[in-house]
């Protein structure tokens, strides 16, 4: 008989939002029945204001649900004493905590707080875990620096390390990679995947990095319009939920290629002939400028042939309304196109 694993996190008929005394409640999302398994990296995606941070804070027990329940290992999160909860769940938020005069190492060491005695004394094991967490995010050079003097991205790395040092089975991260450069974002995502898959932790990460989430997360929670669609990234792309969630943001998602573009309505059709890197970047530039890429030269108003030679570099031959133009940069190509067909667009 196949054993079904009990989810580490479950919500039942959860409604999240805000309620001030003697005011009607503001519901951000409702009827949420979510679950997370150990060993999973789950990406929480949604447009600005969809309610990702509200959900994170509610799951973490920092904000009361309007209705329903959140269960961590079967126990109601809002009934678990804070000290016990901190041994099972860690959270990285986007706000800037006032960290006084702490240095990087001391900040990460705060993650050991649920395990230390009343004096906060670190054992040898605690020190090992802190060092491991600092190294895991590549922050060795920040350990001695005062946190107040660090950049947003540097501080963010340490906040992630602090959560790792807390050694919890569930880690919640609200936009942890927002201030990081691309290589570090990719690296942190890979680290989180490794932690989930190899150490059995459950990790929920909210992000606006759609592409990275699509490629890295085991499952997505797609939040928009007061509800959440869940599934593997690929299922959510194929059933149209992914596209629908971001359409209102003016972002167009191409299901064929898995790429995003700004949803500016294309007007003039142009055909680009030629292969290679110069042709690829020409197509990207044209799409960015709002042109529609035709698949047949007969269905286009302009035909562009890209040639790329080792000796002379790329060259663009433009055939437009019975005239031909040769240019040597994409800038000149766009200007020529604009000068001759802008009145039609
Ligand atoms: N304290 C509050 N009282 C009332 N409404 C709030 C409060 N905080 C946030 N909201 C509202 O809740 C909604 C969801 O906000 P939230 O910050 O959870 O969204 P988000 O998906 O995390 O957005 P972003 O991607 O921009 O960070 C927004 O409409 C916001 O204005």
UniProtKB/TrEMBL annotation:
InterPro entries: AAA+_ATPase, ABC_transporter-like_ATP-bd, P-loop_NTPase, Siderophore_ABC-ATPase. Gene3D superfamilies: P-loop containing nucleotide triphosphate hydrolases (3.40.50.300). It is a peripheral membrane protein. Its main location: membrane. Residues 9-250 form the ABC transporter domain. It comes from the Bacteria. GO terms for molecular function: ATP binding; ATP hydrolysis activity. It is found in: Cell membrane. GO terms for biological process: iron ion transport. Pfam families: ABC_tran. This is ABC transporter ATP-binding protein. It comes from Phototrophicus methaneseepsis.
């Amino acid at each position: 008989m196949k054993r079904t694993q009990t989810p580490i996190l479950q919500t039942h008929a959860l409604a999240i939002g805000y309620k001030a005394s003697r005011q009607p409640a503001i519901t951000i999302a409702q009827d949420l029945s979510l679950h997370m398994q150990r060993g999973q990296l789950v990406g929480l995606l949604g447009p600005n204001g969809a309610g990702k941070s509200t959900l994170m804070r509610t799951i973490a027990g920092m904000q009361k649900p309007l209705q329903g329940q959140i269960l961590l290992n079967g126990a109601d999160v809002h009934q678990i004493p804070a000290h016990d909860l901190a041994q099972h769940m860690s959270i990285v938020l986007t706000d800037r905590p006032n960290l006084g005069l702490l240095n990087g190492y001391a900040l990460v060491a705060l993650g050991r707080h649920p395990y230390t005695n009343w004096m906060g004394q670190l054992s040898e094991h605690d020190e090992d875990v802190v060092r491991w967490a600092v190294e895991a995010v590549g922050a060795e050079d920040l350990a001695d620096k005062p946190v107040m003097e660090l950049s947003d991205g540097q501080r963010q790395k340490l906040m992630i390390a602090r959560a790792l040092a807390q050694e919890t089975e569930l880690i919640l991260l609200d936009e942890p990679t927002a201030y990081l450069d691309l290589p570090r974002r990719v690296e942190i995502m890979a680290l989180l995947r490794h932690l989930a898959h190899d150490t059995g932790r459950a990790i929920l990460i909210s992000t606006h990095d759609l592409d990275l989430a699509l490629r890295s997360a085991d499952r997505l929670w797609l939040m928009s319009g007061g509800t959440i669609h869940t599934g593997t990234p690929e299922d959510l792309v194929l059933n149209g939920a992914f596209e629908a969630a971001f359409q209102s943001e003016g972002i167009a998602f191409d299901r064929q290629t898995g790429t995003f573009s700004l949803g500016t309505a294309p007007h003039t059709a142009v055909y680009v002939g030629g292969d290679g890197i110069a042709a690829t970047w020409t197509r990207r530039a044209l799409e960015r400028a709002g042109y529609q890429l035709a698949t047949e030269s007969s269905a286009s108003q302009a035909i562009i042939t890209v040639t790329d030679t080792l000796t002379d570099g790329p060259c663009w031959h433009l055939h437009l309304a019975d005239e031909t133009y040769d240019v040597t940069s994409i800038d000149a190509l766009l200007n020529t196109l604009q000068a001759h067909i802008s009145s039609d667009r």
